[in-house]
């Protein structure tokens, strides 16, 4: 608790009213609702059991201190308004009573008007501060000793009962539940009733006083607060409590904490704290929601599961095609000033763009969670994968690459790839997938020693084909398989010294070989998400966009704390 000791001329600012006092002698000084000066080296009063001092307004005779001891005869004469024996009520004030507080401080209480009382505080006969209760309660604090003056002239006086300044929920000794938070560098409290907050009030000055039911609460500027329940034999400091439905606390990669609560079916909430300060709330109500704090991403799903990661982020991405770490291909576009995203299946077939409706949105594609920012930048997290990376731009050659797989007999198959750089064939065992030969423009055919025949006919043309003969014996024939055509808008890269009609050398021919053509096979375009070449392609999965709701967005107020809440539709996780 912030000490009230000062080294200066005592000046108490209470509710905006300044009252000057002379220099103080040794002893503790009350700090009212503004800074109060006191002499350095003063000792704190001994702690006593908290009790109310008075709640009446009965007049009494001003306290007269005893004559100074002989040992103090060398002390200068106590003259001036700063000493209690020279105190007089000012014009417009009506003296009400003297109160002797814990530690020996004397409060001279006067009425200054309707709902307006004032207390002049004296320690060892010397003025140490003034408390002004004009239309609202005001408080002073001296090393854990609290004195509250109400605008009707009643008072409360106690020691201790202080809670730390860690944001969260607290229960008072009478069962009242309060929530402490910090915003824009200021602490505030709100009453919690039936699980809902009644609204925060933040400190504006040195401290502020509230009445929550019977409880009197003083909140300090540094976030510590003390509570006193008048008339109760039981007094204690507010105790931290977990809200109903508390599930767990998770540590985030940036050191922040996420306290996760179950609010209801398909509804979870996470309260985010960083360095003890509440920095945001993520509310996943029947849809997922995410936050981003300078590259630390946190996603809360409606079922209470989470993802959290740092990085995997490509800032300010330009419209184009991108590939995720798991091979999923996405396209970014911009329309009417807003960025949108779609998945590309088989390299060219888009699933449809969804455009931003807020500062960012969250999407689910295959096994990836993707966050798209307002500037086109986006991050991706691959669930359960050890390999994580930022999205990478896909080159023109990658976009124009197609692949097909065909059987060539004898338990073997050929993976035929066509790209702007020409054809490529990988011959592999169907069972094990082991590749036993690769053909391309530089090596268009196998040598005679290979034991089988395999060559690419017309390797520099736009319509090459693969001829293979892998089975021997009388009457065995080879087969020819056309490479897949390049996608629309794609073309071969120019090759110096080559012509489109150039055939193969050696065994390669471009004429009629007398073999049977077989152009059937599975064709796909790469890069392709989680679907490998030749794999069976099932029905399209759920890639519903996870749309952010503006009402759920929470921006954080401290420097470097930027969690912003986003949402996505439930059930759209990959």
Question: Describe it for me?
Answer:
- Residues 1-28, 34-62, 67-72, 500-562 and 564-574 have low confidence and may be disordered.
- With 574 residues, this protein is mainly beta.
- It is rod-shaped.
Task: Offer a quick outline of the entry.
The chain is mainly β. Helix content is 1%, strand content 43%.
Describe the secondary structure blueprint for this structure.
Blueprint: E1 11-14, E2 17-20, E3 94-100, E4 106-113, E5 116-123, E6 126-134, E7 138-142, E8 145-149, E9 155-159, E10 162-163, E11 168-171, E12 177-183, E13 186-193, E14 196-197, E15 201-202, E16 207-212, E17 215-220, E18 225-228, E19 239-241, E20 246-251, E21 257-264, E22 267-274, E23 277-285, E24 287-293, E25 296-300, E26 306-310, E27 313-314, E28 320-323, E29 329-335, E30 338-345, E31 349-350, E32 354-355, E33 360-365, E34 368-373, E35 378-382, E36 392-393, H1 396-399, E37 401-409, E38 412-419, E39 422-429, E40 435-440, E41 453-457, E42 465-469, E43 479-482, E44 516-517, E45 522-526, E46 545-546, E47 566-569
Parallel strand pairs: 43-44
Antiparallel strand pairs: 1-2, 3-4, 4-5, 5-6, 7-8, 8-9, 10-18, 11-12, 11-19, 12-13, 13-14, 13-15, 16-17, 17-18, 20-21, 21-22, 22-23, 24-25, 24-47, 25-26, 27-35, 28-29, 28-36, 29-30, 30-31, 30-32, 33-34, 33-46, 34-35, 37-38, 37-45, 38-39, 39-40, 41-42, 42-43
């Amino acid at each position: 608790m912030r000490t009230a000791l000062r080294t200066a001329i005592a000046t108490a600012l209470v509710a905006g009213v300044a009252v000057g006092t002379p220099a103080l002698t040794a002893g503790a000084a009350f700090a009212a609702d503004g800074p109060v000066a006191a002499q350095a080296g003063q000792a704190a009063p001994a702690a006593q059991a908290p009790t109310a001092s008075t709640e009446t307004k009965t007049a009494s005779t001003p306290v007269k201190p005893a004559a100074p001891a002989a040992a103090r005869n060398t002390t200068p004469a106590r003259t001036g308004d700063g000493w209690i024996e020279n105190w007089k009520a000012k014009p417009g004030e009506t003296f009400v009573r003297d109160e002797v507080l814990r530690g020996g401080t004397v409060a001279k209480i006067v009425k200054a008007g309707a709902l307006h009382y004032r207390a002049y505080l004296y320690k060892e006969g010397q003025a140490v501060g003034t408390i002004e209760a004009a239309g609202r309660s005001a408080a002073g604090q001296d090393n854990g000793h609290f004195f509250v003056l109400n605008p009707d002239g009643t008072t409360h006086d106690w020691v201790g009962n202080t809670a730390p300044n860690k944001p969260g929920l607290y229960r008072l000794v009478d069962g009242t539940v309060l929530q402490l938070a910090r915003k824009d560098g200021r602490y505030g409290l709100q009453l919690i009733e039936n699980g809902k907050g009644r609204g925060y009030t933040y400190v504006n000055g040195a401290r502020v006083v509230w009445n929550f039911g019977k409880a009197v609460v003083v909140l300090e500027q540094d976030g510590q607060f003390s509570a006193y329940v008048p008339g109760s034999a039981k007094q204690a400091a507010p105790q931290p409590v977990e809200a109903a439905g508390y599930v767990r606390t998770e540590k985030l990669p940036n050191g922040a904490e996420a306290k996760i609560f179950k609010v209801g079916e398909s509804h979870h909430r996470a309260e985010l704290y960083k360095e003890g300060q509440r920095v945001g709330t993520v509310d996943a109500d029947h849809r997922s929601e995410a936050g981003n704090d300078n590259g630390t991403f946190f996603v809360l799903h409606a079922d209470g599961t989470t993802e959290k990661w740092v990085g995997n982020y490509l800032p300010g991405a330009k419209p184009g095609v991108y590939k995720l770490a798991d091979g999923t291909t996405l396209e970014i576009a911009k329309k009417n000033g807003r960025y949108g995203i779609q998945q590309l299946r088989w390299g060219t077939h888009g699933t449809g763009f969804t455009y931003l409706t807020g500062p960012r949105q969250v999407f689910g594609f295959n096994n990836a969670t993707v966050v798209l920012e307002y500037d086109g930048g986006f991050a991706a997290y691959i669930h359960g994968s050890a390999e994580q990376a930022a999205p990478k731009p896909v080159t023109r050659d990658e976009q124009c690459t197609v692949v097909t797989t065909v059987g060539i007999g004898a338990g073997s198959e050929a993976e035929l790839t066509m790209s702007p750089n020409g054809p490529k064939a990988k011959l592999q065992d169907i069972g094990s997938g082991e590749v036993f030969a690769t053909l391309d423009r530089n090596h268009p055919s196998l040598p005679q020693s290979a034991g089988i025949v395999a060559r690419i006919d017309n390797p520099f043309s736009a319509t090459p084909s693969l001829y293979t003969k892998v089975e021997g014996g009388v009457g065995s024939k080879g087969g020819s398989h056309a490479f897949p055509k390049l996608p629309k808008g794609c073309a071969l890269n120019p090759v110096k010294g080559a012509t489109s009609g150039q055939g193969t050398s050696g065994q390669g021919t471009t004429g009629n070989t007398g073999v049977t053509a077989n152009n059937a096979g599975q064709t796909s375009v790469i890069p392709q998400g989680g679907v490998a070449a030749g794999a069976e392609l099932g029905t399209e999965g759920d890639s519903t966009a996870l749309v952010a709701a503006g009402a759920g967005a929470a921006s954080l107020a401290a420097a470097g704390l930027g969690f912003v809440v986003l949402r996505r539709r439930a059930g759209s996780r990959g």
